Amino acid sequence: MRREDILHLPSMPLAGPSYPKGPYRFINREYMIISYETNPEIVRAQLPEPLEPVDTPLVHYEWILMPDSSGFGSYTESGLVIPCRYNGEEMNFVSQMYLDDDPPIAAGREIWGFPKKYAHPKLEVVKDTLTGTLSYSNQLVAMGTMGYKHESMAGNGEKTTAILTKTAVNLKLIPGVDGKPGICQLVAYNLTEITVKGSWIGPGRLHLVPHVNAPVADLPVRHVVAAHHFIADLTLPYGRVLYDYLKG
Protein backbone atom coordinates (compact mmCIF):
# COMPACT_ATOMS: atom_id res chain seq x y z
CA MET A 1 0.00 0.00 0.00
CA ARG A 2 1.31 3.42 -0.98
CA ARG A 3 2.13 6.12 1.57
CA GLU A 4 -0.71 8.39 0.39
CA ASP A 5 -3.17 5.51 0.73
CA ILE A 6 -1.97 4.83 4.27
CA LEU A 7 -2.39 8.49 5.23
CA HIS A 8 -5.92 8.46 3.83
CA LEU A 9 -7.03 5.59 6.09
CA PRO A 10 -9.56 6.74 8.74
CA SER A 11 -8.37 4.30 11.43
CA MET A 12 -6.74 0.95 12.15
CA PRO A 13 -6.56 -1.85 11.12
CA LEU A 14 -5.44 -1.38 7.54
CA ALA A 15 -7.45 -4.38 6.31
CA GLY A 16 -10.73 -3.14 7.80
CA PRO A 17 -10.72 0.22 9.63
CA SER A 18 -12.63 0.28 12.92
CA TYR A 19 -14.54 3.45 11.99
CA PRO A 20 -14.90 5.83 9.02
CA LYS A 21 -13.98 9.49 8.81
CA GLY A 22 -16.24 12.00 10.58
CA PRO A 23 -17.99 14.17 11.46
CA TYR A 24 -20.57 11.81 12.92
CA ARG A 25 -24.34 12.31 12.73
CA PHE A 26 -26.79 10.95 15.33
CA ILE A 27 -30.54 10.63 14.71
CA ASN A 28 -33.09 10.24 17.52
CA ARG A 29 -30.42 10.27 20.20
CA GLU A 30 -32.29 9.77 23.49
CA TYR A 31 -30.99 10.94 26.87
CA MET A 32 -31.92 10.41 30.49
CA ILE A 33 -29.81 12.61 32.76
CA ILE A 34 -30.12 12.47 36.53
CA SER A 35 -28.32 15.36 38.22
CA TYR A 36 -27.27 15.10 41.84
CA GLU A 37 -25.12 16.64 44.53
CA THR A 38 -22.08 14.79 45.86
CA ASN A 39 -19.11 15.54 48.12
CA PRO A 40 -17.06 18.60 47.05
CA GLU A 41 -13.72 17.04 48.01
CA ILE A 42 -14.44 14.04 45.77
CA VAL A 43 -15.28 16.32 42.85
CA ARG A 44 -11.97 18.13 43.31
CA ALA A 45 -10.11 14.81 43.36
CA GLN A 46 -11.85 13.63 40.17
CA LEU A 47 -11.18 16.80 38.14
CA PRO A 48 -7.77 16.97 36.42
CA GLU A 49 -5.99 20.29 36.83
CA PRO A 50 -6.23 22.97 35.47
CA LEU A 51 -10.01 22.30 35.54
CA GLU A 52 -11.70 23.81 38.59
CA PRO A 53 -14.89 22.78 40.41
CA VAL A 54 -18.03 24.91 40.19
CA ASP A 55 -19.61 26.27 43.37
CA THR A 56 -22.12 23.43 43.80
CA PRO A 57 -20.66 19.88 43.70
CA LEU A 58 -22.96 18.60 40.95
CA VAL A 59 -22.69 15.42 38.89
CA HIS A 60 -24.77 14.45 35.85
CA TYR A 61 -25.34 10.71 35.45
CA GLU A 62 -26.30 9.98 31.82
CA TRP A 63 -27.87 7.20 29.82
CA ILE A 64 -27.85 7.77 26.06
CA LEU A 65 -29.61 5.52 23.55
CA MET A 66 -28.20 5.97 20.04
CA PRO A 67 -30.25 3.92 17.54
CA ASP A 68 -28.94 5.62 14.37
CA SER A 69 -25.30 6.74 14.44
CA SER A 70 -23.36 7.24 11.22
CA GLY A 71 -20.31 4.99 11.16
CA PHE A 72 -21.09 3.49 14.57
CA GLY A 73 -24.48 1.79 14.17
CA SER A 74 -26.84 1.33 17.13
CA TYR A 75 -25.64 1.32 20.74
CA THR A 76 -26.23 2.59 24.28
CA GLU A 77 -23.93 4.56 26.55
CA SER A 78 -23.86 5.45 30.24
CA GLY A 79 -21.56 7.48 32.45
CA LEU A 80 -20.67 10.44 34.62
CA VAL A 81 -20.21 14.09 33.69
CA ILE A 82 -18.86 16.68 36.16
CA PRO A 83 -19.57 20.43 35.69
CA CYS A 84 -16.34 22.45 35.94
CA ARG A 85 -14.59 25.68 34.91
CA TYR A 86 -11.59 26.38 32.70
CA ASN A 87 -10.27 29.95 32.49
CA GLY A 88 -13.63 31.16 33.79
CA GLU A 89 -15.74 29.27 31.23
CA GLU A 90 -18.20 26.69 32.53
CA MET A 91 -17.76 23.29 30.89
CA ASN A 92 -18.61 19.62 31.44
CA PHE A 93 -15.80 17.16 32.18
CA VAL A 94 -16.62 13.66 30.91
CA SER A 95 -15.38 11.47 33.75
CA GLN A 96 -16.50 7.90 32.94
CA MET A 97 -18.29 6.28 29.98
CA TYR A 98 -19.50 2.71 29.42
CA LEU A 99 -20.95 1.35 26.17
CA ASP A 100 -21.66 -1.80 24.20
CA ASP A 101 -20.19 -1.23 20.72
CA ASP A 102 -16.55 -1.44 19.60
CA PRO A 103 -16.34 1.25 16.83
CA PRO A 104 -17.45 4.17 19.06
CA ILE A 105 -15.17 2.90 21.85
CA ALA A 106 -12.17 2.92 19.50
CA ALA A 107 -13.05 6.22 17.82
CA GLY A 108 -14.02 7.92 21.05
CA ARG A 109 -10.76 7.08 22.76
CA GLU A 110 -8.46 7.64 19.76
CA ILE A 111 -9.93 10.91 18.43
CA TRP A 112 -11.44 12.85 21.35
CA GLY A 113 -10.09 10.99 24.39
CA PHE A 114 -13.50 9.86 25.64
CA PRO A 115 -12.99 7.64 28.74
CA LYS A 116 -14.86 4.69 27.19
CA LYS A 117 -14.94 1.10 28.45
CA TYR A 118 -16.98 -1.89 27.30
CA ALA A 119 -20.02 -2.68 29.44
CA HIS A 120 -23.77 -3.25 29.13
CA PRO A 121 -25.93 -0.16 29.59
CA LYS A 122 -29.65 -0.12 28.76
CA LEU A 123 -32.28 2.63 28.51
CA GLU A 124 -35.90 1.57 28.13
CA VAL A 125 -39.47 2.42 29.08
CA VAL A 126 -40.85 -0.11 31.56
CA LYS A 127 -44.58 0.58 31.98
CA ASP A 128 -44.73 4.08 33.49
CA THR A 129 -41.00 4.38 34.21
CA LEU A 130 -38.03 5.44 32.09
CA THR A 131 -35.37 3.04 33.32
CA GLY A 132 -31.60 3.05 32.87
CA THR A 133 -29.29 0.26 34.01
CA LEU A 134 -25.56 -0.37 33.71
CA SER A 135 -24.00 -3.81 34.16
CA TYR A 136 -20.26 -4.46 34.18
CA SER A 137 -18.95 -8.05 34.22
CA ASN A 138 -22.50 -9.30 34.86
CA GLN A 139 -22.87 -7.08 37.93
CA LEU A 140 -25.35 -4.21 38.22
CA VAL A 141 -23.42 -1.02 39.02
CA ALA A 142 -26.02 1.69 38.29
CA MET A 143 -29.78 2.04 38.04
CA GLY A 144 -31.67 5.25 37.30
CA THR A 145 -35.43 5.71 37.15
CA MET A 146 -37.60 8.62 36.04
CA GLY A 147 -41.33 9.20 35.75
CA TYR A 148 -42.10 8.87 32.03
CA LYS A 149 -42.89 12.21 30.35
CA HIS A 150 -44.44 13.75 33.45
CA GLU A 151 -43.92 17.36 32.36
CA SER A 152 -42.97 18.81 29.00
CA MET A 153 -40.05 21.17 29.57
CA ALA A 154 -41.13 24.76 28.98
CA GLY A 155 -39.17 26.23 26.09
CA ASN A 156 -37.62 22.80 25.70
CA GLY A 157 -35.98 23.47 22.34
CA GLU A 158 -33.87 26.44 23.43
CA LYS A 159 -33.08 25.20 26.93
CA THR A 160 -32.19 21.69 25.82
CA THR A 161 -30.11 23.01 22.92
CA ALA A 162 -28.18 25.14 25.42
CA ILE A 163 -27.44 22.00 27.46
CA LEU A 164 -26.22 20.14 24.38
CA THR A 165 -24.06 22.98 23.04
CA LYS A 166 -22.16 23.51 26.30
CA THR A 167 -18.46 22.83 25.85
CA ALA A 168 -17.43 19.35 26.99
CA VAL A 169 -13.87 18.35 27.84
CA ASN A 170 -12.07 14.99 28.01
CA LEU A 171 -8.69 13.89 29.34
CA LYS A 172 -6.98 12.24 26.37
CA LEU A 173 -4.14 9.99 27.54
CA ILE A 174 -2.46 7.72 24.99
CA PRO A 175 0.90 6.10 25.78
CA GLY A 176 3.76 5.98 23.33
CA VAL A 177 5.52 2.76 22.33
CA ASP A 178 7.95 3.26 25.25
CA GLY A 179 5.06 3.26 27.74
CA LYS A 180 5.48 6.96 28.51
CA PRO A 181 2.71 9.45 27.69
CA GLY A 182 2.62 10.02 23.93
CA ILE A 183 -0.46 12.25 24.08
CA CYS A 184 -1.66 13.87 27.30
CA GLN A 185 -4.20 16.61 26.64
CA LEU A 186 -7.47 18.16 27.66
CA VAL A 187 -9.61 17.98 24.52
CA ALA A 188 -12.72 20.13 24.07
CA TYR A 189 -15.63 19.72 21.65
CA ASN A 190 -19.07 21.20 20.99
CA LEU A 191 -22.02 19.36 19.46
CA THR A 192 -23.53 21.03 16.37
CA GLU A 193 -26.54 20.88 14.01
CA ILE A 194 -28.90 20.17 16.91
CA THR A 195 -32.63 19.58 16.46
CA VAL A 196 -34.52 18.90 19.70
CA LYS A 197 -37.53 16.62 19.13
CA GLY A 198 -38.85 16.44 22.68
CA SER A 199 -37.82 17.33 26.23
CA TRP A 200 -39.35 16.38 29.57
CA ILE A 201 -38.65 16.69 33.29
CA GLY A 202 -39.99 14.62 36.17
CA PRO A 203 -39.13 12.83 39.40
CA GLY A 204 -35.95 10.75 39.34
CA ARG A 205 -33.86 8.44 41.49
CA LEU A 206 -30.35 7.02 41.12
CA HIS A 207 -28.69 4.00 42.73
CA LEU A 208 -24.95 3.36 42.36
CA VAL A 209 -23.14 0.17 43.39
CA PRO A 210 -19.37 0.06 44.16
CA HIS A 211 -17.33 -1.83 41.55
CA VAL A 212 -13.57 -1.79 41.10
CA ASN A 213 -13.64 -1.59 37.27
CA ALA A 214 -16.70 0.65 36.93
CA PRO A 215 -16.27 3.03 39.88
CA VAL A 216 -19.34 5.20 39.29
CA ALA A 217 -20.19 4.91 43.00
CA ASP A 218 -16.97 6.76 43.86
CA LEU A 219 -19.09 9.90 43.33
CA PRO A 220 -21.85 9.08 45.84
CA VAL A 221 -25.40 10.40 45.54
CA ARG A 222 -26.19 12.85 48.35
CA HIS A 223 -29.26 14.48 46.85
CA VAL A 224 -30.98 14.17 43.47
CA VAL A 225 -31.49 17.65 42.03
CA ALA A 226 -33.25 16.98 38.69
CA ALA A 227 -34.12 14.39 36.07
CA HIS A 228 -34.26 15.27 32.39
CA HIS A 229 -35.34 13.18 29.38
CA PHE A 230 -34.92 14.41 25.81
CA ILE A 231 -34.55 13.29 22.21
CA ALA A 232 -32.47 15.12 19.59
CA ASP A 233 -30.65 14.86 16.27
CA LEU A 234 -27.10 16.19 16.41
CA THR A 235 -23.60 16.07 14.96
CA LEU A 236 -20.38 15.23 16.82
CA PRO A 237 -17.57 17.16 15.06
CA TYR A 238 -13.85 16.85 15.64
CA GLY A 239 -12.42 18.49 18.77
CA ARG A 240 -9.64 20.87 19.69
CA VAL A 241 -6.77 20.80 22.18
CA LEU A 242 -7.59 22.87 25.26
CA TYR A 243 -4.47 22.12 27.28
CA ASP A 244 -1.34 20.06 26.58
CA TYR A 245 0.28 18.54 29.67
CA LEU A 246 3.45 17.61 27.77
CA LYS A 247 4.06 21.26 26.87
CA GLY A 248 3.48 22.50 30.41
What do we call the CATH topology?
Acetoacetate decarboxylase-like
Q: What is the residue-averaged pLDDT?
A: 96
Question: Helix proportion of residues, in percent?
Answer: 10-25%
The assigned structural class equals: mainly beta
Label the CATH architecture: Beta Barrel
Low-pLDDT residue spans: none
Largest sheet properties? 12 strands, mixed
- Give the overall form: globular
| CATH C-level name | Mainly Beta
Number of helices: 4
Q: Report the order of strands and helices.
A: HEHEEEEHEEEEEHEEEEEE
- Measured by DSSP, the beta-strand proportion falls in over 45%
Let me know the number of strands: 16
Classified in CATH, the superfamily is Acetoacetate decarboxylase-like
Q: Structurally, how many domains make up the residues?
A: 1
Using only CA atoms, what is the Rg?
18 Å
Intertermini distance? 38 Å
Characteristic key phrases:
Acetoacetate decarboxylase-like, 248 residues, 4 helices, single chain, 54% strand, mainly beta
Structure commentary:
With 248 residues, the chain is mainly β. The protein has a single domain, classed as Beta Barrel (Acetoacetate decarboxylase-like). It is 14% helix and 54% strand. The chain has four helices and 16 strands. It has helices at residues 3-8, 40-46, 102-112, 156-165, and strands at residues 24-37, 52-53, 58-69, 73-86, 89-99, 116-118, 120-126, 129-136, 139-147, 151-152, 168-175, 181-189, 192-201, 204-208, 223-236, 240-244. Strands 1, 2, 3, 4, 5, 6, 10, 11, 12, 13, 15 and 16 form a twelve-stranded mixed beta sheet that branches. Strand 8 and strand 9 form a beta hairpin. The longest helix has 11 residues, at 102-112. The chain starts with a helix and ends with a strand. The mean pLDDT is 96.
